[in-house]
Amino acid sequence: RVAIVLFTADLRLHDNPVLRAALSAAESVVPLFVVDSGVRDAGFTTPNRAAFLSECLADLDRGLRARGGHLVIREGDVVREACRVAAETDAAEVHLAGGSSGYAQRREDRLRSALAADGRRLRVHDAVVTALPPGAVLPSGRSHFAVFTPYYRRWSAERLRPVTGAPRRVAVPTVSTLPLPAAASLAPGTASPALARGGESEGRRRLAAWLRSGVDAYAVRHDDMAADATSRLSPYLHFGCLSPVEVIDRARRRPGGAEAFVRQLAWRDFHHQVLAAVPGAAARDYRTRHDRWRTDPEELAAWKAGVTGFPVVDAAMRQLAHEGWMHNRARMLVASFLTKTLYHDWREGARHFTDLLIDADVANNQLNWQWMAGTGTDTRPHRVLNPLVQARRFDPEGEYVRRWVPELAGVAGGAVHQPWRLEAVRRERLGYPGPLVGLPDALARFRRARGLT
Ligand code: FAD
Fold it and tell me: Where is the Photolyase/cryptochrome alpha/beta domain (predicted)?
């Protein structure tokens, strides 16, 4: 008997219920990854994500080879390719991780009916991509939690499934495969210069280091942008190189239970359960009836390039371009700056994040953007993050700004946050732009647009 494991957002051998179930259902297993034309057509195969993905696949293949097997690569429409491999190997079952996006749900439905037409079965496994499956906890009479705090209360009280190790052996039947895809064949274009390395091995190494020497200080240091004191595990969680169940389980074993860190992982599940219940939430428009987002291509370009004249905003945008990753506090303040201070459509910002972030996903990117823009779930729609106040609180010495904005490297201390206050001669020599907008005017514009004045 043969079973297929169709890898999607679960590119790992450890704690993978999909792989485990397939191995216990059949003597041999086809570990299949399809370079899916649908994902590419949806604009998700960017150079940064392609670079990370190709490393994930190479690492997964190495892990499988060490266990007597190998990864099977196909390319094209995921449903057609999976059915083709099932026919070639006469597999009775295809095993797949449940996903929350509209795309994942359609993929699942299409695959189920295409397999059934051939007398084969799709088996979907939960708690692979998220710690708790969407819908595992629900408010009475509703399809999902719309507010985080009550969700978190219920989420925390649930027992997670037990963590499992990696299999010892994976026997793969004879089946043809394409070569492992190089980044350039997945997406043309240049990746950011300082991307994290992809793959389960690297993810596990980082997780072990984080649990050893980072997580205990998370509660007090996570918002300090210069300290860089968050886990940076998001790309590994996104591609499934790490299991959220295992990350939470191991974090909870720390003295004190690493509650602040675990809470962030609950945010991840929270957005997934909103999206699973309301797939259209990813594309929701602004919610007030009378306001209209502003359109100003030059302003948008300045935001993207990190030349707005607000040093903390520019530092964050340049970190994104350089690393394909950005600190959470920085994501919040640049999103607020774009959608509230400049009053641009959040979807422009979300698109730019998707173009560059390794960890960009529909649930966390689109819904966090809406949370910041005041158009989404559990939101304080009228809260505006003043970039200057944020900078003083979360980068008091200006270290984060000097790291990313070399024009300002010679400006000492917190003065770096307001270069417009420097003497004119010195300011001119910096070669750094003046502020794109006046903050009081921008705030007044925002309040008018939202009908608050
Ligand atoms: P840590 O602080 O170490 O947190 C641990 C893990 O918890 C993260 O790896 C992540 O999986 C999860 N997490 C933390 N904060 C959040 C949050 N607010 N929402 C959901 N999950 C969270 N996260 C993504 O994974 N993908 C995205 O596309 C994404 N887009 C964002 C867009 C905006 C505008 C904002 C404000 C936030 C976004 N986030 C996104 C959430 C958060 O910024 C990142 O998960 C976090 O910065 C990743 O860094 P870390 O791994 O060091 O996080």
Answer: 1-130
Burial per residue of 69-97, b for 16 or more beta-carbon CB atoms within 10 angstroms, e otherwise: bbbbbbbebbbebbbebbeebebbbbbbb
Of 1.25.40.80, 3.20.20.140, 3.40.50.880, 3.30.70.1660, the CATH number of 130-158+201-277 is 1.25.40.80
Amino acid at 328: N
Tell me the per-residue pLDDT of 392-415, one tens digit each, with 9 for 90 and over: 999 999 999 999 999 999 999 999
Atom 29 of ligand 1, residue of closest alpha carbon? 365
- 201 C-beta closer than 6 A to ligand 1: no
Q: Is 15 in the pocket of ligand 1 (CB under 6 A)?
A: no
Q: Is the CB of 357 under 6 A from ligand 1?
A: yes
User: Which residue, judged by its Cα, is nearest atom 14 of ligand 1?
Assistant: 264
Name the pTM for this structure: 0.97
* Atom 32 of ligand 1, residue of closest alpha carbon: 365
- 189 C-alpha vs ligand 1 centroid, how far in Å? 25
- Return the CATH superfamily for domain 2-128: HUPs (3.40.50.620)
- pLDDT-derived band at 310, boundaries 50, 70, 90: very high
What is the Å distance from ligand 1's center to 370 Cα?
14
ipTM of this complex: 0.99
333 touches 326 (CB < 8 A): no
User: Which residue's alpha carbon is nearest to atom 42 within ligand 1?
Assistant: 328
